[in-house]
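Recap for those who missed Tuesday's class. We walked through two folding examples back to back. For each one, the amino acid string is listed first and its predicted structure tokens come directly after. Nothing is annotated here on purpose, so try labeling regions yourself before you check the end of the notes.
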Amino acid sequence: LGAQAPIDTARAHRTLGEILLLQQRTPEALREFQQSSALSQRLQGVQHPEAAMTVGLIGITQARLGLPSAADSLQRAISVLASKVDSRHVMLLRLRAALDAVNRAM
């Protein structure tokens, strides 16, 4: 499959996670995002925007499951993305809104 195969596998896990999240199959979505994140961070590094977005999706999913680790995941993703993308980037805005919601729920 070539050099792109591992990152394509990470992206496929992330996409499947997003589909599962839309179907409200939240625990399954979390597993897919975690697999994607592990691959993506290993291949691209933790500071890569794509890896950070996946960590953010983990945080959103953890929040839906009521897990206390959600705030940390969201904050880590926001910290990376804030220095890598425009401040109006849709994912950055989505993560900030999710972190605000988590903080209000505490």
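Example two. Treat it independently of the first, because the proteins are unrelated.
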Amino acid sequence: CICLWAKFYIREKHMNTNQSLHGGVMASLLDTASGMSVRSLLDESETIATINLSINFLRPGFSGKLTAKGHVKSKGKKMATVEAELYDEKNKLLANSIGTFAILPIS
């Protein structure tokens, strides 16, 4: 399992109309942590593209530091599967995801 962390600080501009963290920001953090995990296993001649990202939004985020953690579950020559979690600064799980990534040659 390859695990990578991404950290992010919530600002007012990241809030939705309910004054909680916008789901798109959460999705972006999960995708980033997942993609970074896959990229850590690639050769310099390879890159990735997200094929699918399925997200479970479990609770809202309001302030402070967030941490996204990505785990590569499987990696083949052309695809990888990654699970990721997003935690608030109290270590409460806000969202999780499973994603499929294409492994592509850099042309």
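Answers for example two:
The first strand starts at residue 3 and ends at 9.
The mean pLDDT is 88.
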